[in-house]
Amino acid sequence: GENVEQHPSTLSVQEGDSAVIKCTYSDSASNYFPWYKQELGKRPQLIIDIRSNVGEKKDQRIAVTLNKTAKHFSLHITETQPEDSAVYFCAASQTGGSYIPTFGRGTSLIVHP
Amino acid sequence: DAGITQSPRHKVTETGTPVTLRCHQTENHRYMYWYRQDPGHGLRLIHYSYGVKDTDKGEVSDGYSVSRSKTEDFLLTLESATSSQTSVYFCAISVRVPPDNEQFFGPGTRLTVL
Asked: Which one, of A95, A113, A87, A58, lies nearest residue B41 by Cα?
């Protein structure tokens, strides 16, 4: 089955800095890669996603890049703000079957004012 | 909002007692999932359903059973709760057609087994 590794587990930055979270996946059949943000005590919520036919996608201050050859994808947050502090999860979905996503273990991002 | 609720939101129970958690959705989504979330482990799939009475196991299914008798309800049962099942449980639905499997999560249930 799919295996998703996520690094780092904790990331501490100063407000205004950039933050990068990286994930690797094992199954070349995976073709959908979402990122979820979970604020303290809340549910995970989708913030951005990318499909395997696209190398990069941006939405305001966040962007995701995908390298299919190396089987890794990354979340980039620019000009970080305190409200970006949360746990971020990457995931990878395989085609076929019941399309069960496999999640990374999460990255706790702390943005210091 | 995809209209997904969970009940109860909090529960404290004792070891050995049965516990049932309910997930309810209002938009006839086919796929539903139960995850548990523990520090350092992220979101781990317990069971999922791909239709009424159609369910399958996830990576951490031992000690759990599920049932789906109606499209809108997906029940998770701990037959005999253990302290290792203390966790936050999230139900999710798949809100986009395959192969994009965007998950929309319920608000979660915090379960404590004493």
From this structure: A87
